[in-house]
Amino acid sequence: MAYRGEDELSGLGRRRLVAALRPRARRAQVVAAVLLGLLGFAAAVQVRATRDAELDGLRQTDLVRILDDVSERAARLQAEARELQQTRDQVAGGSNGNLVALEEARDRARVLGILAGTLPAVGPGIELTISDPAGAVGADVLLDALQELRDAGAEVIELSTVDGPAVRVVTSTALVDVEGGIEVDGEVLVSPYRFRVIGEPRTLAAALDIPGGVIDVLRQREAQGLVTQRSSVRISSLRVPPSPRYARPAPDTGGASNETDETDGDR
Amino acid sequence: MIAALGLALGIVAGLFLEPTVPVWLQPYLPIAVVAALDAVFGGLRALLDGIFDDRVFVVSFVANVLVAALIVYLGDQLGVGSQLSTGVVVVLGIRIFSNAASIRRHLLSA
Question: Domain span at residue A191?
Answer without folding.
Answer: 122-235
